[in-house]
Design a protein that fits this description.
mainly alpha, globular
Length: about 230
């Protein structure tokens, strides 16, 4: 119950500060663009957008949310509440996962296309990874400029190999160790079931690792806030 209330609160926060409106504007632009791209090319572009936009927006919007919470001292009350660090991180990640899945599904179905089960795993895994990376960086930074500078390497590290894989520039199965490639492989799903399962496992391991280090960073941030509020 406590976690569900936290998730509802985070979703309300996204709506209150207009982030859902930003999502909606991007959706409209992408649907107009996809309307003029037909056939396999349209399906290819749609999946690139499904990977890059809901996931990448989660990375940057997460920072905006956490920095807003810091500026409004919201986290000070969390620091002295019975909410655990794991619940705090999970709530943030799930809220952005819901938003990312919704955007991806709207883009797909709104353009007359669809997403299958591997697509959804790729979208969900990428969305969780990007949003938790955003939360980790936001916990370690104190201004929007710092956050943007620190997230650029993260964005490049995750996205670049994924796009290279999508465009056929890299193809070795060993690249499935990389989370961006694993997510792209699930979205395009032109390989065997073994590679599909390897991609899911890769994303699970990466997300578990990021959850662990993000929880540590969030615990340190909340501890500092607790100390400063006394």
């Amino acid at each position: 119950m406590k976690l569900s209330r936290l998730i509802k609160g985070d979703l309300f926060f996204l709506a209150k500060y207009g982030l859902f409106l930003v999502y909606a504007l991007f959706i409209v632009v992408y649907l107009i663009m996809l309307h003029y791209i037909r056939g396999e090319a349209g399906n290819f572009v749609m999946k690139l957008l499904v990977f890059s936009d809901p996931a990448a927006m989660g990375l940057f919007f997460m920072g905006a949310v956490v920095l807003l919470e810091k500026s409004q001292r919201v986290n000070c009350s969390l620091a002295v509440s019975p909410v655990t660090v794991e619940q705090y991180v999970t709530s943030k990640a799930v809220a952005f996962l819901i938003a990312g899945l919704a955007v991806g599904l709207i883009i797909a179905f709104g353009s007359g296309r669809s997403l299958n089960v591997p697509d959804l795993f790729g979208l969900a895994g990428g969305s969780l990874l990007f949003s938790m990376c955003g939360l980790f960086v936001a916990c370690r930074t104190h201004s929007l400029n710092q956050f943007i500078i620190c997230t650029l390497p993260v964005e490049i590290f995750i996205s670049t190999p994924g796009f290279l894989f999508a465009f056929g520039r890299i193809s070795s199965p060993l690249w499935l160790i990389h989370p961006g490639v694993a997510a792209m492989n699930l979205l395009f799903m032109e390989n065997s079931i073994v590679q599909c399962l390897a991609s899911v496992l890769s994303l699970l391991v990466w997300n578990a690792a990021i959850f662990f280090i993000t929880s540590k960073a969030a615990a340190k941030m909340l501890k500092n806030l607790e100390g400063s509020s006394l």
